Amino acid sequence: QVQLVESGGGLVQPGGSLRLSCAASGSIFSIYAVGWYRQAPGKQRELVASISPGGTINYADSVKGRFTISRDNAKNTVYLQMNSLKPEDTAVYYCKGNYGTVVEGTNRGSWGQGTQVTVSS
Predict the structure, then answer these.
(1) Quick check: 4 pLDDT over 90?
(2) Is 73 helix (H, G, I), strand (E, B) or coil?
(3) Where would I find the beta strands (DSSP E) of the chain?
(4) Exposed site from 37, 72, 82, 100, fewest CB < 10 Å?
(5) Which of 72, 68, 2, 76 is nearest to 36 (CA)?
(6) What is the pLDDT of residues 25-69, one digit of tens each?
(7) At a CB cut-off of 8 Å and minimum separation 6, what does 52 contact?
(8) Strand duo 10-12 + 115-119: pairing
């Protein structure tokens, strides 16, 4: 079982930037589809961005043009660069990985423990 560990969250002012990292144990990470989910208090979990093993990328409409997902298979790491952050981006961000070309919001595969992102002045 691949283990995922997120890092890079924190407090940032509106308009600021953060880069989240999702580090995986195990070389099979390169054949995982990986996604970043977020969940704000009282709201449903939302898929923010995903990347397939072949590099196909998808974004939620709410973050298009502001967030960028990328992967470095040599480092077993997926990144989420978040720019022009808004207060509504405040949430716990989770990394999820599973075999296949599409990331699933299920218990198949691995979830990270989450990292808090707070956007506030």
Answers:
(1) yes
(2) helix
(3) 4-7, 10-12, 18-24, 32-39, 46-51, 57-59, 67-72, 77-82, 91-99, 110-111, 115-119
(4) 72
(5) 68
(6) 976 788 899 999 999 999 999 999 999 999 999 999 999 999 999
(7) 33, 101, 102
(8) parallel
